[in-house]
Amino acid sequence: NRAIQDGSFPTVLEKAMQDLKPEAAYFVAEDGTRTFYWFLDMGDQSDLPWVAERFFTGLNATVQTTPAMTIEDVQKGLAKAFG
């Protein structure tokens, strides 16, 4: 709410969109809370602080991450698991 009221929300959002270049972005209300779902290709897990800190500090947001795979990733993982 603070970022909406003080006008910083659009700036944080625009900078994040430019930096992160999400494959898709959806904005919803979930359980009465402003929520957005962004789908990003994080090439390295160590990118997580670079992704998340802007939302922690700029919006006082809660950030949840869920790893996801493409079909190619699934196939590669299954090959490793079952050789």
Describe the structure in your own words.
The structure is a single chain. The protein is α+β, with helices and mostly antiparallel strands. The protein has four helices and two strands. A two-stranded antiparallel ribbon has the order 1-2. A hairpin with a 2-residue loop joins strand 1 and strand 2. The radius of gyration is 16 Å and the shape is elongated. The termini are far apart.
For this entry, give a set of tags.
83 residues; alpha+beta
Could you give a quick summary of the protein structure above?
This protein is 48% helix and 17% strand. The protein has helices at 2-5, 9-20, 48-59, 71-82, and strands at residues 24-30, 33-39.
List the helices and strands and how they pair.
Elements: H1 2-5, H2 9-20, E1 24-30, E2 33-39, H3 48-59, H4 71-82
Total E-strand runs: 2
State the low-pLDDT regions, or none: none
The helix-and-strand class reads alpha+beta
Gyration radius from CA atoms, angstroms? 16 Å
Quick one: overall form? elongated
End-to-end separation in angstroms reads 51 Å
Relative helix content? 40-55%
Number of helices: 4
Q: What is the makeup of the main sheet?
A: 2 strands, antiparallel
Question: Kindly state the mean pLDDT as a whole number?
Answer: 94
Strand order in the largest sheet: 1-2
Order of helices and strands: HHEEHH
